[in-house]
Write a structure and sequence with these properties.
homodimer, 187 residues, mainly alpha, 73% helix, 0% strand, DNA-binding
DNA sequence: GCTATAATTGAACGAACATTCAAATAAGTG
DNA sequence: CACTTATTTGAATGTTCGTTCAATTATAGC
């Protein structure tokens, strides 16, 4: 009855994520989004709406990906070795898998672009905090984590994201991250 | 013999800092810089160069201000009460004096605008790290701090900068910051 | 293979952008 | 007061931006 869609939505969002992540919201142009996705402006607008709407979908898509990683791969990993170290190593591994750059949500939180749905970002960060809390409670040294300790951990994880951008070697950065989180959580 | 300058350079840089800090490099327009400084485009270009050059001067100006705060006010404060707590409280005070928003250098490090002189940002962050190190060594509990511990502290301070942007109350944020830094440094 | 319908195309739009420069202005010197 | 020289003015420049939409194309059902 009708022509079918020539693209896969997740593919388009993956590619758009890459550009927004690299350049930030303000510095990314619709023209670049067209180039990277292979879609003409009309198709992009018809399928995803304007720049702001595309970005909102990118944020949703990205957050779901992160949460999935933590709640499936992370949970399985830590259930195999129920130690604080395994949680820490998993978190750092996740950071380096995304190319040793700070999380898109954190970048956007600081950029605060108009109409970036700051509230959306905050709610996603809350979900991630909860998931990391659950992961930590699987470790035998922890078992229960209160709100204050979890906040300290999140604070440290955010710090590592920034620290990564200072461009030190992976070895050095991992050492700092492990040292800091261990010092903070070992009891 | 000639007409004299109608503006004070530090005033102009202060005002420009405000705009770049609030909106980021990419989202700030020359037109906004003209409005906030009260200068016409021609004057801005004649006195400070193009957008990139203005930004470079803003970064220099901002960094000098921070370093001055730490190396004079901070050093005096901690020399009066040589405790780890006084250092921590001073650092947090500094953050809240600038309006509870993350440091311009950190924002720029993540934004990575083209021609933002990323190398300049990194060198300023190194200077700040050194100054905070000196401050910590004034505390009697510390006296000597090795590179690794200082890195952990910087990592935590960066984390607090992000944490602040999550919009929790000042009381709660300060509690997290003090708890985290104490846990990390008390021995 | 024709038709109906939805997706795609890409040139075109006005708005906003960074930057320029000839003309106007102000002030120190003789 | 006139002259010289540096500063300021602000309209104008060409470019790039986000966005639109009439025309074109592809496909599923008959």
């Amino acid at each position: 009855m009708t022509r079918s869609c020539a693209y896969e939505v997740p593919d388009v969002l993956d590619r758009a994520t890459e550009v927004f992540w690299k350049q930030g919201y303000a510095a990314t142009t619709m023209s670049e989004l067209c180039d990277i996705t292979g879609l003409q402006p009309g198709s992009l607008y018809a399928g995803f709406g304007n720049k702001q709407a595309i970005f909102r979908q990118v944020i949703e898509h990205y957050s779901e990906k992160i949460l999935r990683e933590i709640n499936t791969r992370g949970v399985i990993r830590v259930s195999e070795e129920k130690t604080l170290d395994s949680v820490i190593k998993f978190i750092i591994e996740l950071m380096y898998e995304s190319g040793a750059r700070s999380c898109l949500l954190i970048k956007t939180l600081l950029e605060k672009p108009v109409g970036s749905e700051q509230q959306l970002i905050l709610s996603k960060l809350n979900l991630i905090e909860q998931s990391i809390g659950s992961l930590l409670e699987q470790a035998e040294e922890i078992q229960n984590i209160n709100e204050r300790d979890l906040s300290s951990v999140m604070c440290t994880i955010y710090g590592i994201h920034i620290y990564i951008e200072r461009g030190y070697s992976k070895e050095r950065t991992i050492k700092i991250a492990v040292d800091t989180l261990r010092q903070l959580l070992n009891r």
